[in-house]
Amino acid sequence: MAAILSYTSLFVFRKLVVEAEKFGLSHLEFTQSYYIGLLMIPVFWLTVYHVTDFYRDIYRRSRLKDLFYTFNTSLLGSIFIFFALILDDSVASYTDYYRGFLVYFSSHFFFTALFRTLLTTRTAYRIRSGNIAFNSIMIGSNEKAAELYAKLESESNRKTGHNFVGFVSVDNNIRFLLEKNLEHLGNHKALPNIIQEKEIEEVIIAIESSEHHKMEEVLNLLEEKPVKIKMIPDTYDIISGKVRMESMRSIPLVEINHQLMPVWQMVLKRIFDIVSSALVLILLSPLYFTVMMITKISDKGPVFFKQKRVGFQGKEFYMYKFRSMVVDAEENGPQLSSENDERITPWGKIMRKYRLDELPQFYNVLTGDMSIVGPRPERKYYMELISQHAPHYRYLQKVRPGITSWGMVKFGYASNVDEMVERLKYDVIYIENMSLLNDIKILIYTVIIVLQGRGK
C-alpha cells in the first residue's frame, strides 16, 4: 500500500506540477505507464525488504529501530527509483528533479513508517496482553532460574510473550526449585528432542555458576535448532556491551544470534563468489592450461587431485586441486603434509608456494560447495580428531568452506591436529565477525601472500 500510494503521489506531482510548468497545462490522466508502475514498484520494494532480511522475526521488533531502518531503506530505494524513472523526465528546470525526488522519498517514508508503526504497536499490545506468546523453556533449575522465572511472570501483569512449557536441568539432582512452577522436561542432553516435540521457539539459559562448564555442551546442542536463545549475562557481558537495551524491559538478557550475516550481505557474497569464479576460470584459462601441461610433463599421473571434504552443514563434497604430490601419496592412510614432505613433487612445491594448486577450487565455488572466503574444509577423519580436542570445531560448518580464510592468512596450512586446533581460533573469529568488508580484507592479505610467495 505504501509503495502504491507513494508512486501515485509522484505520478500526480509530475502531471499536475512538473508538466504544468513545462507545457503550461494541467491534465491528470492515468496512463498505461502508470499501471505498469503500479505492478513493478511494489515488487521492487518487497524484493528490497526481503533481501535485506526485514521480514525475519516480525513479532519482536523495536519500533525505533524499525523507523531508522525504514528511513535508510526508503532513501536508498528512492535514489534507485529516481535514476530509473525520474531522471529522464522533461522538466522546465533542473530543480524539478530535486522536487520530484523529495516528493517520492518523503511520501514513501511517511506511508511506510505509518503503516509499520500501526502494525508493530498493535503487535506489541497483543504480546503484552497475552494474545501472542511463544513456546519457551528454561534451561536451569535452581536459584537463578527460579528468580528469573519469577521476574518474567511478575512484570506488573504485562506479559513478555513467553509460554513456558517447562524447564530443562543440567545436573542430576532429584529435586529442583523450579519444579514448584514448571514441569521438569528432562536433562539438557535431550534438548533436540524436547525442542522438536514441544515446538519450542525460545530458550532462556539461567544456569548456576557451578554449572557453567556445561555451557559449551548446551550451546552445541542448540547450534542448528531454529530457536531464539537468550541467557543471563555476567558482569563481563554487561561491560563489553553485549547486553542490549531492548533485552526484555527491566531484565537484562544476552541474545545469542544464530545469523552470521544479514541476508542482503549473504546474497551479495554469493553473487560475488559466482561472478568472481566465472571470471577467474575464463580470464586465467591460459594459466590453468600452463599449470596442467607442466603438471602432466613433470610427473606421471593425473593432473587433478580430488578428495572428499566436509562442507556446509556437514555435507560432503569432492574438492579439486592440481596434484602436487606423488600418486598414491596416502596409500598407508590419511596423512597431513609438512614443510619438507618427501611426497610433494618438485613442481608441487612451486605450486604450493604460490597457491597455484588451489586454482581448480574456483569450480567448487561456482557449484556452491565452497566460497572464495571461508574456513578451510577438512576430511571427516581429521574433523573427528579435531572435535575430540575442540568440540566447537563443528561450529565452522555454519558457513561454506573457502579457498582462503583468516586462519590461512594468519596461520597457514596445518601439518598436525594441534596446529589445526590453533588455526581454528582464527576461523572462529572470522565467523563471529563475518562481513563483506572482512572478506575483502582477507582477499587483499591473500593476494599479498601469493605475490610474495609466502604460502605456508
From TrEMBL:
Name of the protein: Sugar transferase
Pfam family, one: Bac_transf
Keywords of this entry: Membrane, Transferase, Transmembrane, Transmembrane helix
Entries under InterPro entries matching the protein: Bact_transf (IPR003362), EPS_sugar_tfrase (IPR017475)
Compartments reported by the entry: Membrane
Boundaries of every Bacterial sugar transferase domain copy: 269-451
Superkingdom: Bacteria
Family indicated by similarity: Belongs to the bacterial sugar transferase family.
Gene Ontology molecular function: any one: phosphotransferase activity, for other substituted phosphate groups
Entry GO terms, CC: membrane
Membrane topology value: Multi-pass membrane protein
TM region positions: 36-55, 67-86, 98-119, 271-294
Keyword Protein transport tagged: no
